[in-house]
Known about the structure:
The chain is α/β, with parallel strands linked by helices. It has 2 domains: 52-166 and 311-386, Periplasmic binding protein-like II (D-Maltodextrin-Binding Protein, domain 2); 168-307 and 403-423, 3-Layer(aba) Sandwich (D-Maltodextrin-Binding Protein, domain 2), CATH 3.40.190. Helix content is 43%, strand content 15%. A 6-stranded mixed beta sheet has the order 2-1-3-12-6-13, with helices on both faces. It has a 4-stranded mixed beta sheet with strand order 8-9-7-10. A hairpin with a 2-residue loop joins β4 and β5. The longest helix is centred in the first third of the chain and has 34 residues, at 2-35. The relative contact order is 0.16.
Amino acid sequence: MRKPALNLKKRWFSITVCILTAALLLQLPGLFRRAAQPVPVPESLQNSQRGWGGVLRLWEIPSVRTGKGDSAAFLRNRIAAFEKANPGVFIDIRVLSATEAHTLLQKAQAGEGYLPDMISYGAGFFDDPSAWLQEAADPLPDNLHPSLLTAARYEGSVYGIPYLFSGYALIARSDALSTAGVTLEPWDAAGWAQTLIALSGEKPNPDRPRDKIPIRGLEAGSKGGSANFALAVAAREGEGVACPAEGLHEEGLGGGQDKAMERLLSGQTAMMAGGLGEMQTLIKKAEEVESPIALSCQLLRAPDGSIFTDQMQLLALMKGGQDEGRNETAGRFVEFVLNRDSQAICTKVGGFAAVVPPSAGFYEQEDPLYAFEQALREGKLLTVPAYDYDAQRKADFDGAGITALTGEDADKVAFGELYEGLIGLQTPH
């Protein structure tokens, strides 16, 4: 007689299990829905794909090199974000030297090989960008540095759009500046001349202001490098005082930036000119030595205070694209690289955004580049055109700058003609 009772208990147990299971199953869809909720994506990364999928080809010819990376590293970061936001779209980046890229372009023109969908290049790569590139679509970004946009124009039109740039710095030992009783600021032509004079230990003859003044504490790290502009500006007259560097370290010109940095850290020289990469490396090395060395750094400027740069990276669409979807997607990638979220990534590679940064800046205040970024907001850029500035003309310019420093007045005039011809002062932004 007890078996039915046992069966009844089993039956009620089974019914209870079924009820609980049913309740759980009713809740599971909601649980799965909650688990499947995507992580919020910033507005700039939200998928805006319009149906096209495939592989875009991008050639990257790096020209902007900093202490943390280069333009290729910046683009790889942005490509990963763009692909994540656009499932089915992939961007194949191929990093080339300028020589390799020119060779491949010539082969493609002859019917061999292929052209990429996009190209990232530095100032001076194209003599005539209109022969290779699509004209940039309107409207152009309204928050780009006007000076960069002006430099990017070719016969009134814009083809490649600047997205990253860098500059140069004067790096001085603070103890040497203190001993000489000078600083790197405020910057003006007369102050620059007096700083060089003080560091050289020489005094100009007031009756003969054109006398050469040896500058033993200033050097460039590489012969023919763009940092030599720091020396070349010394050849420009400021307040009637000419400052050629008769005491320039010839060894430094041929020894490379590493040797130049060694001499600065050891106290053999008082100041050097270099890229922002060298500046950041020097700051780190100066902190690591047994007796830390204080350094003073200033953005490289012309005597009128303009901030000099020839390191400008541009992004453009190549001509010849027949696939409308492919071309439209490539255009969206260019827009993506120029949005403010993307431009803030410049800090990861130690460069400057092509867009005017917010008032707070993209860099943190403790970063050495923060003050430089703020100066760029308030100053004006001295930019090299993004075209008609090939390697030979650039070498001629650098060589003439060095000759002007060590040569006669005629050499300064020759350099001045190149200077005015290749570089134009831009209006404040």
